[in-house]
Amino acid sequence: MASNTSLSALSLDDFEARTGSATSIIRTITGLYVRHEAAGVARTQIVELAHAAGVSVPAAQTAISRLIDRQVLEASQASSLHVPHAAQQMFERGARRIFTPRQMSGTDPWCLVAYSLPEALRSLRHQIRKHFLQLGGGMASAGLWIFPEYLRAEVTAVLSALGARDHATLFTAQQPHFPGTPQQAAGAWWDLQRLAALHEAFLENTAAVDAQDIAPPNAYRGYVTMIDSWRALPYLDPGLPEFMLPAQWPGAESRERFMALSEALQEPASAFARSLLDS
Predict the structure, then answer these.
(1) Could you tell me the maximum CA-CA distance found in the chain, to the nearest angstrom?
(2) CA 254 vs CA 14, 152, 228: distances in Å
(3) Pairing between β-strand 110-115 and β-strand 168-173 as defined by DSSP bridges
(4) In a domain, 43, yes or no
(5) Cα(252)–Cα(258) distance, rounded to whole angstroms?
(6) Same domain assignment for residues 126 and 90
(7) Coiled-coil segments, which residues (predicted)?
(8) Does the pLDDT at position 2 exceed 50?
(9) Looking at the domain assignment, is residue 63 inside a domain?
(10) Beta bridge partners of 260
(11) Which helix (H) or strand (E) holds 192?
(12) Nearest residue to 240 via CA among 230, 229, 255, 225
C-alpha cells in the first residue's frame, strides 16, 4: 500500500493539530473505528463516540464539520458519514506506524536520499522537506537526507507522489562515519529537543490513564486519549539507535507506556465503541 500512496492522501496528514482538541480526538476516533464501517456512520453516532471520549456535543459538531471540509470525512445522501479513499490510505499508513513503533539497533542499516531538482520543480523543495520531516527524516545537508532503512518504502512513496522520484537516488548505508560524536550528529540532523518534548508531553497526557481500569467506558476514554496523544510520535521520531541519543532519553519510557496501555485497553475500548456503533 505504501508504494501507492497518493499526494492527496499525504496532504491529509496533520501532525500540528493540538492533542486533545475536539478535532484531533474525532480524527483519532475516525482512524480507530469509523473508517472500518463500510456502510457509513450516522453523524449522531460520531458525536456520541466523541462525547464518550470527553468532547462536548457542540465542540464535536463543529469538529466534524471541519473534518468534512478537510476531506477526512465525507457526507453521503443517506445522512451518514464515511471515510473517503484518500483518507483511508492516510489512516492505513498511520496504523502501520502507530501500532508498530520501531527502534533501531546499533547495526541496522540506513537509507540515504540524495536529490537535485531542476528549476521547473523548484517549488517541490518545500514539499519534500515537509514530508521528509513528517516521516522522521534527518537533514544531513541540503539535498541529502538520512532515514532508518525500514522507512525506505515510505520515502519512495513520498517521492513518487510528489513527482520527484526520477530526481532522487537512494542508498543503503551500513554505518555513517560521523564528523564528531554520534550524539552530535543526531542533534544536528534531527530536532531532538522537539522530539523529547513530544515524548514528555505523551507521558504527561497519559499519566492518569489506568491500565487496570478496563471497565469499557473508562477503557475507551483512556485508550482514545492515549492514541490521540501518541499518533504523531511514531512518524516524527524515527527510532534512532540508543548510542545516538542523549542520556535519559524519554522515548523508551513513552514507547513502553504505549505498549502497556494498548495491550490492556484496546479490546475493552473496541467493545465499547462497537456497542455505540451498533446502537
Answers:
(1) 62
(2) 21, 25, 14
(3) antiparallel
(4) yes
(5) 10
(6) no
(7) none
(8) no
(9) yes
(10) none
(11) helix 192-205
(12) 255
Q: What percent of the chain has pLDDT over 70?
A: 93
Identify which has the larger pLDDT, 187 or 19: 187
Q: What is residue 211's DSSP assignment?
A: T
Q: In this structure, are 225 and 169 located in the same domain? A: no
Q: What is the residue range of 196's domain?
A: 191-277
Question: With contact defined as beta carbons under 8 Å apart, do 160 and 186 qualify?
Answer: no
Same domain, 211 and 234: yes
pLDDT tens per residue across span 230-275: 999 999 999 999 999 999 999 999 999 999 999 999 999 999 999 9
112 with 148: CB under 8 angstroms?
A: no
Overall residue count recorded for the chain in this entry: 279
For 29, other C-beta atoms within 10 Å of its C-beta total 24
Clarify whether residues 32 and 88 are in a common domain: yes
CA 176-179-181 angle, 5° bins: 85
117 falls within a domain: yes
Give per-residue burial for 93-108: e unless 16+ CB within 10 Å, then b.
bbeebbeebebbeeeb
Beta strands (DSSP E) in 87-218 are: 110-115, 138-141, 144-148, 168-173
- What is the per-residue pLDDT for 6? 67
Instruction: Give the CATH number, domain containing residue 142.
Output: 3.30.70.240
Look up the pTM and report it.
0.90
Q: How many domains does the chain have?
A: 3
Nine cell digits for residue 134: 513528517
